[in-house]
Amino acid sequence: MTFVRLGGVAHHVAVDGTGPVCVLSAGLGMSWFDWDPVVELLAPHRTVVRFDRPGHGLSQAAAAPPTLAGEADRIAALLDALGLPGPATAVGHSIAGFHAEAFARLHPGRAAGLVLLDSSVDERPRPSRWAGAARPLGAVLAAAGLPAALGPAARRLAVRHDPAPPALLRRVYRTSRVLRGTLLENARYGAVAAELLALREARPLPPGLPVTVLAAPDGSARWERRQRALARRLGARYEAAEPSGHLVMLDAPDAVARAILETPRLQEP
Questions:
Q1: 3-state DSSP call for residue 193?
Q2: For position 268, what pLDDT does the model report?
């Protein structure tokens, strides 16, 4: 088990495999072990970096509310701390798709490719009205013992056929730290989405950067249209993982691994 201190916060990190680097960041409330089925497929071909954002998995609580630039810088700082300064393929699931795209825009020399897994899409974001209440609410719920009582059960409701060992789920999701981290990141969702729209206007993606949007429409024509629109906006290759729910790394790990392994090939003439 490895921990790296960034900005005074201990981040839990897992590094597997050898070869070109890819860094995986999961969605809201998810943990490093949610990538396990994908890592098994990638490790023979890639150096795979997984990390828990502050307040997620085994990482310490956040020192400050998240920002888009802060999350992009976190990826770069993590790779530096691990001694992996070369270009990396950034892979972001759900809300972490915002972070991975921002990394490619703000650190263009560090990005070898970009893979967005059923990424969050928000065409008209609005800041949350309860952003300032996230920390007090988390403290109240923690004091009431809600995480210990209901945390693992809430995880089981959110993840179909959860492959993670029950002991590991209890270790992570019985903690008030993960509840508070999830609330804080969710409260900042609208503001971070707005930051990304502004960043797209100011900082283009690196020329020739291979980008893949792997969506999980799960029968929703509207969601598929939005994901295809995202791919067009980014000049990306579009793929659909079917059948798969939103947690595509658990439902369709083969499709995720294939998208990551094939993305750098788009650079080849």
A1: helix
A2: 47
Task: Give yes or no for a cis peptide into 243 (omega within 30° of 0).
Answer: yes
Residue 134 in 3-state DSSP? helix
CB atoms within 10 A of CB 184: 21
The dihedral over CA atoms of 147, 131, 12, 76, expressed in degrees to the nearest 10, equals 170
DSSP SS3 for 211: strand
What is the model's pLDDT at position 150?
78
- Cα 262-32-135 angle, rounded to 5 deg: 125
CA neighbor of 180 nearest in space, from 215, 151, 213: 151
Alpha carbon separation from 5 to 66, 74, 136, 170, 245 (Å, rounded)? 16, 11, 26, 24, 34
Cβ(259)–Cβ(231) below 8 Å: no
- Beta strand pairing call for 111-117 and 88-93: parallel
Distances (CA, A) of 108 to 73, 91, 167, 238: 12, 15, 40, 22
Euclidean distance between CA atoms 111 and 116, whole angstroms: 13
- The tens digit of pLDDT for each residue in 17-76 reads 999 999 999 999 999 999 999 999 999 999 999 999 999 999 999 888 999 999 999 999
Which among 193, 197, 230, 196 has a CA at the least distance from the CA of 215?
230
Helix (H), strand (E) at residue 238: strand 237-240
Instruction: Find where tokens 């991975």 sit.
Output: 100
Name the amino acid, one letter, at 138: G
Distance CA 243, CA 261 (A): 20
Name 6's bridge partners. 9
